[in-house]
Each structure stands twice: as C-alpha cells, then as structure tokens.
Specification:
Blueprint lengths: L2 H61 L4 H29 L2 H18 L6 H15 L2 H16 L3 H26 L3 H17 L13 H8 L3 H30 L4 H13 L1 H15 L1 H20 L4 H7 L2 H5 L3 H12 L5 H30 L2 H30 L1
InterPro entries: MFS_assoc_dom (IPR024989), MFS_dom (IPR020846), MFS_trans_sf (IPR036259)
Keywords: Cell membrane, Membrane, Transmembrane, Transmembrane helix, Transport
Subcellular location: Cell membrane
C-alpha cells in the first residue's frame, strides 16, 4: 500500500468524520429547538387552563350571581362532553392524518369559545358555551400527548421532562392571573385564556408532523374487562377517589374566597397544590416498587380524604394553604400507581381499552358526578359541606381499596 494512498484514505475518513460531526451537531441543534418548542407549548397550554378554570366558578358565583345548582351544572358539562368528544377528535386526527393541523384549529376555537364567556351573563348561554368550550378543549391534551410521545420515542427522549412544564405553567398561571383578576376584575381570565391559546396555536405549527395513535377496540375489549371483578372494582374505586380530586379544581377557588381569601390567594393555593405534584411523581416509581401499587393507592387516597374532611371543618385560611401540598400525594402518587395497576391487571391485547375506560370513569363520570352534586349541595349548604361530601366518597374508595388488597392477598396465598 503506497504512502500517497494511505494519506488519501486518511483525508477521506477525516472528511467523513468532519461531515458526521456537522450532521450530529445539526441533529442535536434540531432536537434542542424542538424540545424548546414542546416546553413552550405545554407551558402555554396549561397556563391558559390554570388561569381560567380555577377562577371560573368564582366568576359565575360572585360576578354573574348564578345559584349553586347553576354553577354546578355549568361546571359539570365539561367532563360529560369530553367522554364523547375525545374519541371523536381521535378519529378526525386519524382520518385526516394531520394531527398538527387539527390541533392548531382546535386551539384557536378553544380560545374563541373562552373569550365568548366575557360577552354574556345569561345562564343558558353559559351552558351552551361550556359545551362548546369542552368540545374543542377535549382535543388538546390527547393530540398533544400523542405527538409528544411519538417524538420522544423516536429521539429516545423523556416525556416527563417535557410534560413537567405544563405543571409549571399551571402553577404560575393560577397565581399570576389571580393577581390580574384582583386588579382588573374577573373578566380578565377570559382575555388571558384567549390570548394564550392563540399563541399556543402559533407554536403548534412547529410541532413535528407525525403522531402515534393508540387504537382502542372497545367492542372487543369491554366484554372481556367487565368479566374481571378486580377491574370493575377498581373502576368504582377510581370513580370515588378521582371524582373529588377533579371536582376540587372547580370548587377550591370558591372555597378559598368563602373563608376570606383573595383572588391572589386562590392563585397562591393552586400554586402550592400544583407545584407539589412534580416531586411526588418523580419518586412514584421507586415508591411503587418498594411498597406496592395498592399500598401507594391506599396512602394517597387516605391523605386525600383527610384533606377533604379537614376543609369540611372550615379551618383557618393559613392552614388551608399549608395543606394544599397534600395534593402531591393524592395526584402525584395516585395517577402513576393507578395507571400502572390498570395496565398490569388487563390482558395485553386489551390494555389500551382498559386505560381508556379507566380514564373515562375517573376523568369523565367521576368528575361529572362530584361537580354536579357538589353544585346541588352548594345550593342548600356551603362549600365546606361540598368537601364533606368529597371526604365521604374518598373514604368509601379507601374501604374498597382495602377490599381489593385483601382479594389480591388471598389470591397470592
């Protein structure tokens, strides 16, 4: 082999190395840019949600002067609409094969629907607008998560590190928008919501085009799942425990103002509550491995029930703020443990169906039931009585969780 050939070969490989380094740098730069887009997008989405929904019940009650039953009906529309609308948006996204375009359009429509709330004081118009808002909003998180999961799987990224910015956006929003509402009036929550959703729709155009859709075969899976006693029992547990957790988002702001808190105080309380979830989600996997899923579920549900009954006793405002960190247990631990339990319990070929049913029962039916009947209770009694109702439901869920644990222990023995 001649010296000149060796030198040429060395130059060739060096150029390849330089070219490879440039390509690698470009890929890293693109990956970083996309991650910034994802982080900013999730921050905006949850900033908008956090600025509207915790204060919406306060607006309807204090500004529009609707009754407790009317507030409960309006706030309970969203979870019912979402049960039917989420699968529909999934079908549209799959059929068009353009999830990014669908997301951009629904973000704009969601922002417009939220803005329209500021133009009326009529109860029946609020009912229609709530259904319209829920219809478009129900597409946002599922399609966003689908695009994000597909992306992180391709680049071997971390979904949690992106989704975490949604929790941060929510926590900052409830404090910031609460302060703005205190200065400029509660109407500002609709303006902020609309502006933020329009900005998010602009960012959505820069998300990756690809999406990953999980096909849900309800017809094939439901008949098999309903024949599993433990799965059915866990659905009831989810209904009883998750229902109050989600309904709390609608009534907590009203509770804070009823016991003497300000709108800024509402934002501060939600900031503590939402901010406490991330640390517990970070340790959830290790705790589940060490103590077992059902023990973690029982612990988180018990702490949640204690929190609701504590609010029923109308403690001082400072004590309410201090106990908002209990949400880290009830949400940060319960959600990962419950999701893993459902996936482990269901046969492999119907896991997606099982998760879909679990989400519909907890996020949809449970949230609707507690929000609607919470409004009926509020009509006659007070917000503290609503939390007494939440506490009773949650402790009933704890009792059924103990029953489920005993069933599993007998099966193992």
């Amino acid at each position: 082999m001649s010296l000149s050939y060796v030198l040429q070969l060395g130059v060739h490989y060096k150029l390849q190395e330089i070219g490879g380094s440039k390509m690698e740098f470009a890929l890293k730069k693109e990956k970083t840019s996309l991650k910034v887009v994802f982080i900013s997008y999730y921050f905006l989405i949850f900033f908008g949600i956090g600025g509207l929904f915790p204060l919406l019940s306060v607006y309807l009650s204090d500004v529009v002067k609707l009754s407790g039953t009317q507030v409960g009906i309006i706030m309970s529309i969203s979870p019912v609409v979402m049960i039917f609308a989420q699968p529909l948006w999934g079908i549209i996204s799959d059929y068009t094969q353009q999830p990014r375009l669908v997301l951009t359009i629904t973000l704009l429509c969601t922002g417009i629907a939220g803005f329209l709330f500021s133009l009326t004081t009529d109860y029946y118009v609020f009912v229609l607008l709530s259904a319209l808002l829920a219809f478009f909003q129900s597409s946002l998180i599922p399609i966003s998560d689908s695009i994000t999961l597909n992306y992180v799987q391709k680049v071997h990224g971390d979904y949690g590190s992106i989704r975490l910015w949604g929790a941060i956006g929510f926590a900052i929003s409830v404090l910031t928008v609460g302060r703005l509402a205190e200065v400029f009036g509660l109407h500002v929550i609709f303006y902020v919501f609309a502006i933020i959703l329009v900005l998010a729709s602009y960012l959505a155009r820069y998300l990756p085009k690809e999406s990953q859709t999980m096909q849900v075969r309800l017809r094939d899976g439901v008949s098999q799942l309903v024949k599993m006693p433990k799965f059915v029992l866990f659905l009831v547990i989810t209904f009883l425990i998750f229902g109050p957790i989600y309904a709390n988002n609608f009534y907590f702001g009203l509770y804070i103002t009823d016991i003497g808190g300000t709108l800024t105080g509402v934002g501060l309380a939600f900031l503590f509550a939402a901010g406490s979830e991330a640390p517990f989600m970070k340790v959830a996997k290790a705790w589940i491995s060490r103590f077992g899923m059902l023990h973690i579920l029982l612990l988180s549900a018990f702490i949640s029930g204690v929190r609701w009954l504590f609010y029923f006793m109308e403690p001082p405002l400072g004590a309410v703020y201090a106990t908002t960190v209990a949400q880290g247990f009830s949400v940060g631990l319960f959600i990962p443990a419950a999701l893993q339990y459902v996936r482990d319990l269901a046969p492999v070929h119907v896991r997606v169906t099982a998760v879909s049913i679990y989400a519909a029962v907890g996020n949809g039916l449970g949230s609707w039931f507690c929000t609607f009947f919470g409004g009926l209770i509020l009509e006659t009694y007070t917000t503290s009585t609503v939390y007494g109702f939440f506490g009773l439901l949650t402790f009933l869920g704890c009792a059924l969780t103990l029953l489920l644990r005993n069933i599993e222990q007998k099966e193992r023995s």
